[in-house]
Design a protein that fits this description.
Strand order of the largest sheet: 5-2-1-6-7-9-8
Strand content: 5-15%
Largest sheet: 7 strands, mixed
Number of strands: 9
CATH architecture of the largest domain: 3-Layer(aba) Sandwich
Number of helices: 13
Number of domains: 2
Shape: globular
Bound molecules: S-adenosylmethionine
Oligomer: single chain
């Protein structure tokens, strides 16, 4: 890397580094950001600051690795239009539900209708005949019956996608897992266990009803809150596919994104229950950085090739001078090659201190924000 670029490294940007008390979890997960858990999202306040600093007001923003849609939601809140791309179907579903405009009365009517049916449903205590092997392994019989009943409601309403997200969130909470391993449980937990989170003996969940009811109401409240604060004319477009080759439908005033890191998070597997229950299509083989590929030299080279291809595709859509803001924890030093192969030039590099006090993955680390422009 050129010395001038190296000189850009270093200083921690305090305006982008928040302590837990300055930016508590409820702020990081405000309104639709918490419609469904998603491991590996960035905080909306970071997107807000990047848009504010780098992207012309009222412009159009692209996120080629849009994940749970943090960039899109914040863009709508901050008065931008936005396009988000993701390879994982569940993420595309989640983004659609978070960003589409709603007639709130019609949405309320659908959700109340589903709530009433979930509340009065009397589940059998054996597995329903249509329970798949996954459902039989990961849910108790009552929970399975309640979830499959709720699934039968989905197609009966106009807001089917909203109910799908509620169903997925309830399924996640109702799995037979320990309370401290909701992210990537390996085996169903069938017996009671010592819970590190609650410091007492806990039991695996038997019923999904309370989650279905709670999340139906919570979803309505979160979407309504967001409807009050989003810019009335903002437009979000969701593209489901491989960002290396999709037509990204330019032109953009800026990019804000956080690419997957090699070998860290499997973005399909973390929502396995959703794929199983909703029957969504999967594209695991083209998910970049998948842990299953490992971190051998060949795997890292494949990662570099793939991410560079995405940014080359992105580059074609940029308006003159449009900034590409990339949030990375580039401990392997792969991004100088990625940027140069994509035809991008580093203009600025900010270091951010991240200190999480909640969750099993709590801890502190540094991440960078690379700000690049087309050569
Ligand atoms: C770090 S996450 C982005 C999280 C996002 N910033 C958020 O706040 O939710 C990276 C995303 O890249 C997606 N991804 C991986 N390979 C992709 C590809 N070839 N094309 C498009 N998206 C891809 C993954 O599915 C994952 O959702």
């Amino acid at each position: 890397m050129a010395a001038t670029q190296e000189a850009l490294y270093g200083e921690i940007d305090l305006a982008l580094s928040w302590s837990e008390s300055e930016l508590p979890e409820r702020e990081r997960t405000k309104h639709v950001h918490r419609l469904h858990p998603y491991l590996g999202k960035f905080v909306p306040q970071l997107v807000e600051a990047m848009l504010d600093r780098y992207v012309a007001a009222g412009g159009r923003v692209l996120d080629p690795f849009a994940g749970s849609g943090t960039t899109l939601v914040q863009a709508l809140e901050s008065g931008y239009d936005a396009t988000g791309v993701d390879i994982a179907s569940f993420n595309a579903l989640l983004m659609r539900v978070k960003t589409r405009p709603y007639n709130l009365d019609a949405l309320r009517a659908d959700l109340v209708w589903a709530y009433d049916r979930a509340e009065t449903f009397e589940p059998q205590t054996t597995y329903p005949a249509d329970a798949s092997p996954y459902v039989r392994a990961w849910f108790a019989p009552t929970a399975a019956a309640e979830l499959l009943h709720f699934r039968s409601l989905v197609e009966q309403v106009a807001h089917a996608d909203v109910l799908r997200v509620v169903l997925a969130r309830a399924a996640r909470s109702a799995r037979r897992t320990t309370h401290f391993d909701l992210e990537f449980p390996r085996e169903p937990q069938r017996e009671e266990y010592w819970c590190f989170k609650h410091r007492r003996t806990c039991r695996p969940v038997e019923s999904a009803r309370r989650f279905l009811l709670r999340y139906t109401l919570d979803t309505l409240e979160r979407i309504s809150t967001f409807a009050d604060i989003r810019a009335s004319d903002g437009v979000a477009e969701i593209l489901h596919g491989d960002a290396r080759e999709l037509d990204l439908r330019g032109s953009y005033d800026g990019v804000v994104t956080s690419p997957p890191y090699p070998g860290l998070i499997d973005y399909h597997e973390q929502h396995r229950y959703a794929y199983e229950l909703l029957g969504l299509d999967e594209h695991r083989e083209v998910e970049l950085g998948r842990p299953a590929k490992g971190t051998s030299r060949a795997a890292l080279q494949e990662y570099v090739d793939g991410i560079a291809d995405v940014f080359r595709n992105v580059r074609e859509t940029l308006k003159l001078g449009a900034p590409v803001c990339i949030v990375v924890n580039d401990k392997r030093g792969l991004y100088p090659e990625i940027l140069s192969r994509a035809g991008l030039r580093l203009e600025d590099r900010l270091e951010r201190h991240v200190n999480r006090r909640t969750g099993r993955r709590a801890g502190e680390y540094f991440e960078s924000i690379l700000v690049a422009v087309a050569n």
